[in-house]
Design brief:
By secondary structure, the chain is of the alpha+beta class. The protein is built from 4 helices and 8 strands. The two termini are about 20 Å apart.
Length: about 190
């Protein structure tokens, strides 16, 4: 194989390794309008979720809940606009109207998941992890915070989508590789 044909392959590999080494970063604002059904809560929040191998890191802030937070978690696996089962509960979420939460989860451990999520996805931590990661990669996860009694189904929610710079880097790199390959095949 000559060097001009090898270059696009090496560039593609380097881009994919670069993105995977940083992990997949998902960021979004939490609002009542994203809940299903939408609600009129004026509470807000922001969540950053980083998936790197078997590790999930969650950084969350919220303010203005109508009652103290009673639960928070990531749900999986459904398209935006629908509700899904709790996959990863946020143990230790502050019971407050406003606050922050940060935790790192080991996705290989059964204790990371809601028991019903494990049961619904093959019955083992490994099968739950595979379903959870597949849900992330297909943008079929969301985070939300509940309070009781005002919003038992969730007061604020964020559909988890890739952070823009990660997506932009990957798309730009792939377009560049496609352009190089196309230029090399043109007469």
């Amino acid at each position: 194989m000559n060097r001009t044909r090898l270059f696009p392959i090496i560039l593609t590999g380097a881009l994919l390794l670069s993105v995977s080494a940083q992990g997949a970063v998902f960021q979004e604002a939490l609002t009542g309008s994203q809940e299903v059904p939408p609600n009129a809560s004026t509470a807000t929040g922001f969540v950053t979720v980083t998936l790197l191998g078997d590790t999930l890191t969650v950084d969350l802030s919220f303010t203005g809940l109508t009652n103290i937070a009673s639960a928070g978690h990531i749900h999986c696996c459904t398209a935006p606009g629908a509700n899904a089962i709790v996959a990863v509960p946020f143990s230790g979420l502050p019971a407050a109207l406003s606050g922050t939460y940060s935790n790192t989860f080991d996705l290989t451990l059964a204790a990371t998941y809601n028991g019903a999520f494990i049961t619904a996805n093959g019955g083992t931590a490994a099968s739950a992890e595979a379903a959870f990661i597949a849900g992330f990669n297909s943008f079929r996860t969301y985070a939300n915070i509940h309070d009781s009694p005002n919003f038992n189904g969730g007061e604020i929610r964020a559909n988890l989508v890739p952070e823009p710079s990660t997506s932009l880097l990957l798309i730009t790199g792939l377009l560049g590789v496609a352009g190089l390959a196309r230029r090399k095949t043109a007469p």
